[in-house]
């Protein structure tokens, strides 16, 4: 991955959790996330994320 967890979290700022993978992607698109961030979100497991820390854990495990 060529992006940082910080960039991913910036794209998900003000996200309402819990959220599905698809909701995370839609939120990031709405906030004009860059291609690298979108790629990371597309590669996340398809599950429910309870908070930003859940997303970061998955991202770090990739």
Architecture overview:
The chain has about 60 residues and is mostly helical. It has one domain. It contains four helices and two strands. The model has no long low-confidence stretch (mean pLDDT about 90).
Radius of gyration: 10 Å
Query: Approximately what portion of the residues adopt beta-strand conformation?
Result: 5-15%
Number of helices: 4
Uncertain residue segments: none
Average pLDDT over all residues: 92
* Largest sheet features: 2 strands, antiparallel
What is the rounded distance between the termini? 8 Å
Question: Major sheet: order of its strands?
Answer: 1-2
The helix/strand series, from N terminus to C terminus, equals: HEHHEH
Fraction of residues in H or I helices:
55-70%
Give the overall shape, derived from the CA principal axes.
globular
Draw up the topology in text.
Blueprint: H1 5-11, E1 19-20, H2 21-30, H3 35-43, E2 48-49, H4 52-60
Helix pairs in contact: 2-3
TL;DR of this structure?
The protein has 4 helices and 2 strands; from the N terminus they run αβααβα. The chain is mainly alpha-helical and 62 residues long.
């Amino acid at each position: 991955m060529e992006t940082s967890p910080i960039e991913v979290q910036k794209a998900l700022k003000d996200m309402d959790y819990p959220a599905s993978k698809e909701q995370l992607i839609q939120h990031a698109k709405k906030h004009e996330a860059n291609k690298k961030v979108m790629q990371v979100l597309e590669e996340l497991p398809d599950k429910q994320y309870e908070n930003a820390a859940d997303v970061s854990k998955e991202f770090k495990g990739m």
